[in-house]
């Protein structure tokens, strides 16, 4: 069990102590990355939804810190491996999902709302 877990539950953990000036710069870079069509930008928007939505200022700040952590990992890997960064694209998280499982999840949600769902294959245009 790692720090931040208790009995299989993940507890909130703050950021680590480090260079506060670098942290500020990375968070500013994360805010800039949130406006791009890149993997960090997609990560920001995905995390904001999970932390409480785009109207929640705290959710945006938490997502920015998480993206800043991702950026420092990218920087470290580029410097360590001495290879250029390979951008994975804004659809990185969508490509990771299994379409069948996602379809089943959506059908289950509609069934939970009281709808009966039947699917037909789409006509090829």
What do these coordinates show?
There is one protein chain. The longest helix is centred in the middle third of the chain and has 25 residues, at about 55-80. A two-stranded antiparallel sheet has the order 1-2. Helices cover about 55% and strands about 5% of the residues. The protein has helices at about 20-35, 40-50, 55-80, 90-95, 100-110, and strands at about 5, 10. The model has no long low-confidence stretch (mean pLDDT about 90). A hairpin with a 2-residue loop joins strand 1 and strand 2 (about 10). The protein has one domain (about 15-110). It has 5 helices and 2 strands; from the N terminus they run ββααααα. It is mainly alpha-helical. It starts with a strand and ends in a 13-residue tail after the last helix.
Question: How many angstroms separate the termini?
Answer: 52 Å
Quickly give the structural class: mainly alpha
How do the strands of the widest beta sheet line up side by side?
1-2
- Helix percent reads 55-70%
Low-confidence stretches: none
Q: What does the radius of gyration come to?
A: 19 Å
Helical segment count: 5
What is the N-to-C succession of helices and strands?
EEHHHHH
Please state the average pLDDT score.
Answer: 88
| Count of extended strands | 2
Percentage of β-strand residues: under 5%
Overall body shape: extended
